[in-house]
Amino acid sequence: MRNRKNEIYYNALVLPGMIFLVIFSIIPMFGAVIAFKNFVPAKGIFASDWVGLKHFHNMFNRAEVRNVMFNTVFLAVTKIVLNLIVPVIFAILLNEIKSLAYKRVLQTMVYLPHFLSWVILGIMFSNIFSYNGMFNKFVGIFGVQPKMHMIDNASFRPILIFTDVWKNFGYGAIIYIAAILNIDPNIYEAAEIDGANRWHRIIHITLPGIRGTVILMATLALGNVLNAGFEQVFAMYSPLVYQTGDIIDTYVYRMGLTKMQYSFSTAVNLFKSGVSFILITGSYILANKFAGYSIF
Amino acid sequence: MRSKNNVIDYVIIVVLALMAASCLIPILNTFAMSLSDKTSAALGQVLFLPKNFNTTGYEEIIKDDQFFRSFGVSILRVVLGVCINSGLAIIMAYPLSKTSHEFRMRNVYMWIMVFTMLFNGGLIPTYLLVKNLGLVDTIWALVLPGAVPVFNVIILMNFNKGIPSSLEEAAVVDGANPLQCLWNIYIPLAKASIATISLFSMVGHWNEFFNGRIYINTVKNLPLQTYIQNLSMQISAEQMVNMDPEEIVRKLAVSTLTFNCAKAIVSMIPIVAVYPFLQKYFVTGIVMGAVKE
Question: Are residues B131 and B21 in the same domain?
């Protein structure tokens, strides 16, 4: 089957993309050596002095970095858990609806937020959670005092988590809806004849039917433990909520591009990339072992 | 038994209706605010219907030349970005869908691609590179760093694997080379998948704002989302710390509220316009990308 002439074509077709990957992805990996240097733009990457692990020591000694790490893991883990549970519940409930037209309308509505940018959603939610906003009007009915939630440390994390789940639950449910459709309808019929009620059917047929998909998605999500949602936080936070809302990615941005601490910022970033790399690789290995998943 | 079941049916219908309605509430609220007068909007008197119907927000957009320039920059970015992303995905997915027996280097390329997906050099090294290449403040800084959409290449590659190889073999017997096979067999058969990944790229480029923020210094070159974000953050963080809360509310609310809402609504138009297509194609796309045989 091997055909040298074909392979020349194949290589030529892959080449342009590979050039882009090498330039924009591989070269910056070497550029990350500035994490071990004292990078001064005037000197350039090569001529700047080596400082070893100084920036990494510095990083672990700063209380703000520990805070940022905590925020990141807390937000990311909560989002991972809820972004798994809510879509599964939605998919299961949707499966209980008999009217196809109603199903279609519901799906059309819940997929929409996934396609809107965090800039737009940031504007929308800062209105809703503002002092005179809809949220305060609503909880005011129950006698809750109004607050400026977007700049309130007690409210900011719940807002980030809620809006993220809100944006993604419909889209996240697609895969479970597809998995449920793959369950053999005969099983449901047989169960009904045997007198199983709705609850029995969900617990004994639907849930086991999508268990594989849920486990796979949970495993793959492990790789995101340090991804707390950069664009979202960046579009919604302000200095008043750094204490609860600042995450690694926003911290890296501020240290690097606004405070010009290039090397320190890159060290924090490299730490994150390294840990993430281990987590993602681990999750792929687990997914491959238990679900037969392969990336390619 | 029967009536109990009916009650649960209604509960489920209502719960789902509430979940779905929650997805539209912020959008409807913003739309209503964009068509209200500034005071009613700032005082929170607007829910889902405009109060004191008023188009000032939109009139301010029409007067804002930069809004249209940024809209244009974003359109250009989407066109260039989608052409580059999908063009590269098409030509890469075809050879990579061959087995490593037919294409020896295949797995090497695959590992390079996956590695770039798992690990990156980070913000500062990438920024320094883009700067040294002289791309800062040009549209190329927004489309070239992400030129290869690795995930889309994998989606398309998996689709190509499903195309029966007998089609290509028949063409080869007739003397077709791989380029002709790609053009005459794979591209026509993969049209739906290509549409899917192109829509993904389109939405991604339209919504992305952070690269615009770091790579573009001149206001007139800003893409739309970045421009909108800059404006909505007009009251800078430092100012905020020094103001008392009431002052912040007044500043944030009155001056730009309806204008901001109008901008959010106008910048959503392209997404809403392609939403029917998105819905048609992305379900297939996401299922193809996540679970494979």
Answer: no
Count up the domains in chain B and report the number. 2
Distance from CA of B162 to the nearest CA of A (A): 14
SS3 of chain B: CHHHHHHHHHHHHHHHHHHHHHHHHHHHHHHHHHCCCHHHHHCCCCCCCCCCCCCHHHHHHHHCHHHHHHHHHHHHHHHHHHHHHHHHHHHHHHHHCCCCCCCCCHHHHHHHHHHHHHCCCCHHHHHHHHHHCCCCCCCHHHHCCCCCCHHHHHHHHHHHHCCCHHHHHHHHHCCCCHHHHHHHHHHHHCHHHHHHHHHHHHHHHHHCCHHHHHHCCCHHHCCHHHHHHHHHCCCCHHHHHHCCHHHHHHHHHHHHHHHHHHHHHHHHHHHHHHHHHHHHHHHHHHHHHHCCC
Which positions in chain A touch B152 (Cβ < 8 Å)? none
Core vs surface per residue B59-70: b (16+ CB within 10 A) or e: ebbeeeeebebb
Residue B52 resides in a domain:
no
Q: What is the pTM of this model?
A: 0.89
Subunit contact A124:B30, Cβ cutoff 8 A: yes
Q: Which residue of A has its CA nearest to B6?
A: A198
Question: B28-38: per-residue pLDDT in tens?
Answer: 999 999 898 88
If asked whether residues B115 and B200 sit together in one domain, one would say: yes
Total structural domains in chain A? 2
Asked if A4 and A75 sit in the same domain, the reply is no
* Cα–Cα distance, B2 to B183 (Å, whole number): 59
Q: How close B5 gets to chain A, by Cα (Å)?
A: 8
Whether residues B29 and A2 touch (CB distance < 8 A) is answered with no
Q: Are B92 and B147 in contact (CB under 8 A)?
A: no
Put simply, the answer to whether B253 touches A130 (Cβ < 8 Å) is yes
User: How many C-beta neighbours within 10 Å does residue B29 have?
Assistant: 19
In B, residues 113-172, which contact A (CB 8 Å cutoff)? 113-114, 116, 118-129, 133, 144-148, 153-154, 157
Is the model's pLDDT at B60 over the cut of 90? no
Q: In percent, how much of chain A has pLDDT > 70?
A: 99
Contact criterion met (CB < 8 Å) for A115 and B237? no
State whether residue A3 sits within 8 Å of chain B by CB: yes
Q: Is A19 on the interface with B (CB under 8 A)?
A: no
pLDDT per position as a tens digit, A90-107? 999 999 888 889 998 999
**Based on the domain organization, do B166 and B74 belong to the same domain?**
yes
Q: What is the mean pLDDT of chain B?
A: 85
pLDDT per residue over B67-123, tens digit each? 999 999 999 999 999 999 999 999 999 999 998 888 999 999 999 998 998 888 889
